[in-house]
C-alpha cells in the first residue's frame, strides 16, 4: 500500500549492477530467485523505514489530516478504524481518542458524515440514479442506503433530490 500511496515504481530500484531484466528471469534458478527476493525485501524495508520516519515526525494534526484525505479519496470503500490507525502508525484506541479530539467526531460517525455529504452533493448536482450514488459510497443495498440517508438527513434520497 505504501508503494502505491507514494507512487513508487519498483523499477527505479534496478540499475546496471542488477537489471530489471535479470529480475524478471530470476525464476530460472533457486539462487537467482533468492537473490531477487532479498533484493526486493531490502528495498521495500528502506521504503518502510523512510515512511515510518516521516510519519513519526508528523504532528497529530497532520496525521489526522492524512486520514481525512484518505477517507475522501476512498468513500466507496468500507474504511475501518484499523485502516485509519494503520495509516497513522498509532494503536486503534489511541487513534480513536486523537481523532475525536481533533475533529469532534468519532471515526465511524465522521466517515458516515463524509459519505452522506457526498451523496447530498451528488443528488443536488447530478442526475445519477440513486442506486449509482449508493454504490459510490460502497453501499450495494438500496434499501439500507435509503434508510441510512433518511436517518442522516430526515428525508429519503428521492425527497432530498426533489427539493
Main beta sheet:
none
Strands, count:
0
Task: Name the helix and strand elements from N-terminus to C-terminus, one letter apiece.
Answer: HHHHHHHHHH
What share of residues is helical? over 70%
What percentage of the residues does DSSP assign to strands (E)? under 5%
Broad structural category: mainly alpha
> What does the oligomeric state look like here?
single chain
Number of continuous helical runs:
10
The average pLDDT is: 90
Low-confidence stretches: none
Distance between the termini: 41 Å
> What is Rg?
22 Å
Explain this structure.
This protein has 163 residues and is mainly alpha-helical. The chain has helices at residues 2-5, 20-24, 30-57, 60-73, 81-88, 92-103, 107-125, 130-136, 142-153, 157-162. Helix 4 crosses helix 5 and helix 5 (81-88) crosses helix 6 (92-103). The longest helix has 28 residues, at 30-57. The chain is elongated, with a radius of gyration of 22 Å.
Write the layout of secondary structure elements.
Blueprint: H1 2-5, H2 20-24, H3 30-57, H4 60-73, H5 81-88, H6 92-103, H7 107-125, H8 130-136, H9 142-153, H10 157-162
Helix pairs in contact: 4-5, 5-6
Amino acid at each position: 500500500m505504501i508503494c502505491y500511496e507514494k507512487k513508487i515504481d519498483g523499477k527505479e530500484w534496478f540499475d546496471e549492477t542488477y537489471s530489471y531484466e535479470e529480475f524478471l528471469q530470476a525464476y530460472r534458478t533457486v539462487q537467482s530467485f533468492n537473490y531477487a527476493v532479498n533484493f526486493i525485501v531490502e528495498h521495500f524495508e528502506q521504503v518502510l523505514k523512510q515512511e515510518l520516519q516521516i510519519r513519526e515526525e508528523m504532528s497529530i494534526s497532520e496525521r489526522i489530516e492524512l486520514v481525512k484525505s484518505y477517507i475522501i479519496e476512498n468513500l466507496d470503500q468500507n474504511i475501518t478504524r484499523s485502516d485509519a490507525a494503520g495509516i497513522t502508525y498509532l494503536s486503534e484506541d489511541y487513534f480513536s481518542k486523537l481523532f475525536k479530539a481533533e475533529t469532534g467526531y468519532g471515526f465511524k460517525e465522521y466517515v458516515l458524515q463524509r459519505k452522506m455529504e457526498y451523496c447530498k452533493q451528488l443528488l443536488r448536482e447530478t442526475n445519477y440514479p440513486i442506486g449509482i450514488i449508493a454504490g459510490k459510497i460502497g453501499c450495494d443495498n438500496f434499501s439500507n442506503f435509503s434508510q441510512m440517508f433518511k436517518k442522516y438527513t430526515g428525508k429519503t434520497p428521492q425527497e432530498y433530490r426533489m427539493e
